[in-house]
Specification:
heterodimer; A: alpha+beta; Alpha-Beta Plaits; Cytidine Deaminase, domain 2; four-stranded antiparallel beta sheet; 12 strands; B: alpha/beta; 11% strand; globular; binds zinc ion
Chain lengths: 329, 255
């Protein structure tokens, strides 16, 4: 995590533009009501707070699928006898499915830890709000929150960009797309797949649906995913380690000339890529921009359990050959 | 519900059971060419073995149709083809089916995480996924052998150990054979289509979000999902090979 001021990249935090060249694609739905999630809480005596914080640090914080950096872990309450207790958020219900597993974890951590009122009745906002006013309001309504600035600023700040590399690949797919067009391919759509561990050996895939014997589903992204799979199989002869994640394009960066369709944008979710950068938006069939198509924003759809980053190239003009807006890419 | 739908879905369920017995996610499908009521393709998930994450049952079936009848005939065939699949197609597959212009989809249970026919998104009725047939949208009808499809998935998850990147602190996995979530019919189809497909006498199920009686014999067809069925692939393969001729005749004669 870099401090904002130390980031070597020029980031327009308001507009979400990096180096005047890449536009962050977000679901622009502004939330004023949060998604809530239940958390396990216990009550402890203030003198035991250091044990509990230690417990959170070592046993739950890193393991919890729900990040809680935006909430205060501890809330003071005054009991009817004027004594003070601390209510502590141990972890989410995503981490602990039932009471028994919390109890056994607490027991294994410290046999003589005294606590009471173990419950999962408290709810916290799943993510921090975009503004300070909202943060104060939610703190009041749900659970005390911490203000760390607009969470999207931190997201933008944490992205890593190798701009010369990115521009290079974009120029390459743009050139390939021109070539395809000049060779008569009426679907001059090109996608590059970059393996984070082997970035000099990227795979370029062209849309082949105009070719004989090709299916209307031979979009460049599908062709590319299959090419990555084929290369892996050839290299290893057989895929032997059944215990790798099983997601072929895990953490890949994908560069494509045209905004992907619903099939392809979902195929990228299934493939667990890290980032998709496209050049040309598809106003009718695109599935990433909230203004494209049905506004799916597939890369960060709330109901899907995984996501990827998406950017549109807005730098120096790269004009891929025109194709009909009713084409699924 | 017409009995041929039940017959075809039973084949899909058996194939899913076969997949389960061979360490694959128990999701399977049957493509039926409606004018002749013949099975022209079948598919099982191959994501574990292929490691691609996109080798879903529907794509295996699409590949079979393409291989047998030629890519140039895909769209023509899909116009009259109905899919029977044990689990609601995911968003990716729902989109592929729409682009190819499939006639209709019948499925067992909803796909909670990725469903593209009503659970997460309704790709089959959307505007942005362009169909290559004149049928711009398709109906996807849920609930056929739903409990059996759910049970097969439960068998799979109980058996599968934690592969998740961040293993949860879990209670011991117990196979639940009794409770099933309600089926929210209106997420998928409207009341009138339900009436057409399942009969007006069954509309009470639509209104009360309950499973159709009769299909699962008020419970679960345990025999269907517990008996091993190692011959199912051979049977389907023979059936689909036979179907080839009829479709070729039809396509030629319509030209
Ligand atoms: Zn596509
Ligand atoms: Zn699928």
């Amino acid at each position: 995590m870099v401090k904002k001021a130390l980031n070597p990249l020029k980031i327009d935090f308001k507009k979400g533009i990096i180096e005047n060249k890449l536009q962050q694609i977000r679901n622009s739905r502004t939330t004023t009501t949060p998604d809530l999630i239940k958390v396990w809480t216990i009550e402890v005596n203030p003198k035991d707070s250091k044990y509990v914080l230690d417990l959170i640090r070592t046993k739950t914080q890193k393991q919890d699928p729900i990040s809680m950096l935006h909430i205060k872990r501890i809330r003071k309450i005054t009991n009817s006898d004027t004594s003070v207790s601390l209510v502590v958020v141990i972890g989410s219900v995503e981490l602990f499915e039932d009471k028994n597993s919390v109890q056994s974890m607490l027991h294994s951590f410290r046999k003589d830890l005294k606590y009471s009122n173990l419950s999962s009745s408290h709810e916290i906002p799943k993510e921090g709000p975009q503004t300070k006013e909202l943060m104060l309001q939610w703190s009041d309504e749900y659970w005390p929150l911490v203000w760390r600035g607009n969470p999207n600023d931190q997201i933008l700040n944490d992205y890593t960009f190798n701009m010369p590399f990115i521009e290079d690949i974009l120029l390459k797919i743009h050139r390939l797309s021109q070539e395809q067009y000049e060779n008569g391919n009426i679907y001059p759509i090109v996608t590059a797949f970059v393996d984070p561990n082997d970035s000099t050996n990227c795979i370029y895939a062209c849309d082949t649906r105009a070719q004989q014997e090709s299916s209307p589903l031979d979009h460049s992204i599908r062709i590319g995913i299959n090419a990555v799979s084929k290369r892996l199989k050839e290299r290893k002869k057989v895929i032997d380690n059944a215990h790798t994640e099983g997601y072929l394009c895990l953490d890949f960066d994908v560069y494509t000339t045209h905004e992907p369709c619903s099939m392809c944008s979902m195929a990228l979710i299934h493939s667990r890529i890290k980032r998709c950068i496209f050049i040309q938006p598809m106003t009718m069939t695109g599935s990433l921009k909230h203004k494209s198509g049905d506004g799916y924003c597939m890369h960060q759809h709330k109901l899907l359990n995984s996501s990827y980053e998406a950017f549109q190239w807005v730098g120096d003009k790269l004009d891929p050959p025109e194709i009909s807006q009713s084409t699924c890419c | 519900m017409e009995s041929r739908h039940l017959t075809h879905m039973r084949q899909a369920v058996k194939l899913a059971k076969y997949a389960l017995d061979h360490n694959e996610t128990p999701v399977a499908c049957i493509f039926v060419y409606e004018p002749t009521d013949e099975i022209i393709a079948y598919g099982m998930n191959d994501t574990n073995k292929s490691h691609t994450g996109i080798a879903h049952a529907e794509f295996m079936g699409i590949d079979q149709i393409q291989e047998k009848f030629g890519a140039e005939n895909l769209v023509e065939i899909f116009k009259d083809t109905v899919l029977y699949v044990t689990v609601e197609p995911c968003i990716m597959c729902a989109s592929a089916l729409k682009q190819l212009g499939i006639k209709r989809v019948y499925f067992g249970c909803g796909n909670e995480r990725f469903g593209g026919n009503g659970t997460v998104l309704t790709i089959n009725k959307d505007h942005s996924t362009i169909s290559l047939n004149e049928n711009k949208t398709y109906d996807a009808i849920p609930g056929i052998y739903r409990k059996e499809a759910i049970m097969l998935l439960r068998y799979f998850y109980v058996r599968e150990n934690d592969h998740a990147p961040k293993p949860k602190v879990k209670k011991e996995r117990i196979l639940d054979k009794e409770t099933f979530p309600p089926i929210i019919w209106s997420s998928y189809i409207d009341r009138s289509l339900f009436g057409q497909e399942f009969g007006l006498e069954n509309l009470v199920h639509f209104d009360e979000n309950t499973d159709l009686a009769g299909i699962s014999n008020h419970g679960i067809d345990w025999k269907l999902i517990d008996d091993s069925c190692d011959d199912i692939v051979d049977t389907l393969e023979i059936t689909r090979q036979k179907a080839q001729i009829n479709i070729h005749k039809r396509i030629k004669s319509t030209k």
